[in-house]
Amino acid sequence: MKIRKSILIFDDDREVLENLKELLENNTFEVYTASTQTQAFEVIELENPNVLLLDYLMPEIDGISFLKKVRETNKFIRIILITAFSTVELAVEAIKKGANDFISKPFKKDDLIIKINKSLEELRFMIKCCEKNQIDDILSCLSNKIRRDILVMLMKSEEMRFMDIVRELNLEDHTKLNFHIKNLIKSGLVKHTEHSYKITDYGINALQCINKLI
């Protein structure tokens, strides 16, 4: 499956923008640049780039706050955070807010290209297993942690009875599980056999897709 090798670089440093733009264009990428968040949002909306290279420290807005805003409307774009301060805490926070990867300054050119290509491969996988016109329904259904936990359990087991799921989730109110199970069945993620529940192929694909997004 072919996808555009399109990249938006968002950095307030003009020299950095030009250097990265030249590097990536020389490696056959389609490159857009932005030095303000207004410009960046305009490029994302109009050009729909597949990868966002985002500087962590900028005077107008920090990278994590910006990527959080991007994720509110765009679940597919792959985001790589560029930072001079690589710590475990920063990495964890960035991933929680929606980053897919990060790279520390100073970095080798080859390392950046590898990370970008890896991000594009992830996007190819996502599009293959989860069509864009299905993503809103999937995200809505699986926005609840209990439903995600049910899918994970059913993916590990061939099938589970209702009370087995109740015990695994340690739920006191059985009606809650009944509501979530019905929602999963209605969305085509789970099927009900005579005495038990199974995850569908669509449910497996949806779970894999969600795991790539979160």
Describe this protein's structure.
With 214 residues, the chain is of the alpha/beta class. Helices cover 57% and strands 14% of the residues. The protein folds into two domains: 121 residues, Rossmann fold; 78 residues, Arc Repressor Mutant, subunit A (Orthogonal Bundle). It is built from ten helices and seven strands. The protein has a five-stranded parallel β-sheet with strand order 2-1-3-4-5, sandwiched between helices. Strand 3, helix 3 and strand 4 form a beta-alpha-beta unit. Helix 5 runs antiparallel to helix 10.
Provide tags for this entry.
214 residues, single chain, alpha/beta, two-stranded antiparallel sheet, 10 helices, Rossmann fold, 7 strands, 5-stranded parallel β-sheet, Arc Repressor Mutant, subunit A, 2 domains
Offer a quick outline of the entry.
By secondary structure, this protein is of the alpha/beta class. 57% of the residues lie in helices and 14% in strands.
Write the layout of secondary structure elements.
Blueprint: E1 6-10, H1 14-25, E2 30-34, H2 37-47, E3 51-55, H3 63-73, E4 78-83, H4 88-97, E5 101-104, H5 109-129, H6 132-141, H7 145-156, H8 162-169, H9 174-186, E6 190-192, E7 197-199, H10 201-213
Parallel strand pairs: 1-2, 1-3, 3-4, 4-5
Antiparallel strand pairs: 6-7
- Kindly report the spatial arrangement of strands forming the biggest sheet: 2-1-3-4-5
What shape does the CA trace take? elongated
Helix residue percentage = 55-70%
Based on helices, strands and strand pairing, what is the structural class? alpha/beta
Number of strands: 7
Question: What's the order of the H and E elements?
Answer: EHEHEHEHEHHHHHEEH
